[in-house]
Amino acid sequence: DLRAQLDNGGKLPLPDGILINGRSSGAALKVEPADQPAKDYYLAVSSRFTSKILTTTGVLHYNNSIGPVSGLIPNGPTLMSWSFKQAREIRTNLTTNGPRPNPQGSFHYGMINITRTIRLANSAGQIKGKQRYAVNSASFYPADTPLKLADYFKIDGVYKPGSISDQPIKGGIYLATSVMQADYRAFVEVVFENWENIVQSWHLDGYSFFVVGMELGKWSTASRKSYNLNDAITRCTVQVYPKSWTAIYVALDNVGMWNMRSELWERQYLGQQLPVAAIQQHHLILILL
């Protein structure tokens, strides 16, 4: 029913509520004591950057609890700066080692030369009177032949490499079987630019990447001065706040075609996605006798 609504050119409504472990209220999570008195505590969750704020509560139940939850539930944060600050404070602990006799060491991603910068801007619009979403103005439309099969069996004519720009472009959105081609083992900077008023969520299949920066406003080369090139965390999904940008570093060391997409299902289904093809270069050596 939801898919038919989108196929007919409509949008999905706001969710009815938020669930914790499948429950709209009363979910209890049993935990070991931290440094707090032995009782139960509220777990409050509220939506962010939505026209209607949705809220639900659960309970953190200490296994030695001697009392129920009490007191008022605090309001959620309202300033976007709070979200940026929280996101930046999640960092890798470089003082720990892996479970092996010798120290594991760290991956010094900040010391690797960037071979390419890809800027991806999400947008919304209509094509022939129906709602669509796009990346760099290209609204993904699947081909009759699955792209992974076309890539693996080298089937010509299914898609055209370079059918999507690696920089935002002006103008209306258009339908395309868009594929971003990149070199295998390249070390790439990807900047997600969100010029809309809602929070975005991006996922990349097949890889983990370093989240090196996020700020309010437009990205420029000067924005790199604010990057965390020391102890950023690795993720496969990242948020982009309204009217903001988020930058990641990724080593394309997984050959083949992998999907980069919005994690907002409506936007993904209606075109806010693109395959990224990491192509292994073949070198021909001629020996003249």
Looking at CATH, which topology of the largest domain would you report?
A: Immunoglobulin-like
Compute the CA-based radius of gyration.
Answer: 23 Å
Looking across the biggest beta sheet, what order are the strands in? 5-4-9-14-11-12
Low-confidence segments, given as residue ranges, are: none
Q: Biggest sheet: strands, sense, closure? A: 6 strands, mixed
**H-E string:** HEEEHEEEHEEEEEEEEEHE
Structural write-up:
- The chain is mainly beta.
- The chain starts with a helix and ends in a 10-residue tail after the last strand.
- It is globular.
- The chain folds into two domains: 78 residues, no CATH class; 171 residues, Cupredoxins -  blue copper proteins (Immunoglobulin-like), CATH 2.60.40.
- The strands form four sheets. Strands 5-4-9-14-11-12 form a six-stranded mixed beta sheet, with no helix packed on it. The protein has a five-stranded mixed beta sheet with strand order 8-16-15-10-13.
- It is built from four helices and 16 strands.
Quick take:
Residues 144-277 form the Plastocyanin-like domain. This protein has helices at 2-7, 80-88, 147-152, 265-269; strands spanning 27-31, 40-46, 55-62, 116-127, 130-135, 138-140, 174-176, 180-183, 187-194, 200-204, 209-216, 234-235, 237-240, 244-251, 256-262, 273-279.
Task: Jot down its keywords.
single chain, oxidoreductase activity, Immunoglobulin-like, globular, six-stranded mixed sheet, mainly beta, Cu-oxidase_C, 2 domains
Outline the fold blueprint.
Elements: H1 2-7, E1 27-31, E2 40-46, E3 55-62, H2 80-88, E4 116-127, E5 130-135, E6 138-140, H3 147-152, E7 174-176, E8 180-183, E9 187-194, E10 200-204, E11 209-216, E12 234-235, E13 237-240, E14 244-251, E15 256-262, H4 265-269, E16 273-279
Parallel strand pairs: 1-3, 4-9, 6-7, 8-16
Antiparallel strand pairs: 2-3, 4-5, 9-14, 10-13, 10-15, 11-12, 11-14, 15-16
